[in-house]
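User: My instructor asked us to take a sequence, write out its structure as tokens, and then describe one feature of it. I'm not sure where to start. Here is the sequence I was given:
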Amino acid sequence: MHPLDRGLLALSAAFPSVSDDCADWPLGQRNRALFELHACCFGPNLQGWSACPRCSEKVEFDLDGSLLMAASPQVSSGTSVMIRGGQFRLPNSRDLACVLTADPDTAGVRLLERCRICDGSGGAWNEAALHDAGEILAAADPLAETQLALDCPSCSHQWNDVIDIGGFVWAEIESRARRLLEEVHTLASAYGWDEAETLSLSTARRASYIRMVQA
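Assistant: Let's start with the prediction itself. The structure tokens for your sequence are:
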């Protein structure tokens, strides 16, 4: 699955009672839900790394997702902004999916036109207009894209990298899934239990059996 779809799948599995489709949520609302999901299941801290674009040095970072949520206003599907006299809704996951494969020179225009609610008096989308539109959308929905300022300890190069909260959630899910399969294998080998019997145990009880087997 595409990383965008993985994040939506995690949300739909975690919040099955949500009446509307999370793919229609503004990106900031979706990301806030992913931050909350990560904090609830795996803790608020996001530990990761990025490669320096100049020297390829691995630069690690540690980020508190709860601080990001506290500093950013909540948005909803009904939120809109005015750009050059026109009204625009906030971009959602469907909009992002439609422009992922678009030419970089036209992706911004396509995204804005998909989000247009009513026309304004502005002219063509030149570079300055696109920049201003991006600033307005970022101010209205700051969690739509979280950029982290990084500084390479080896060559002192500074750059910004985007935090993919969906990627963090999915990496934790994959890690837990692999660990759970290993536990099933260990207990099945030791006691002959099948998968259903092993998974019926509580996490604490399963861990106790694992410790006895490993001892």
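For the description part of your assignment, you could build on this observation: The longest strand covers residues 45-51. Try explaining in your own words what that tells you about the chain.
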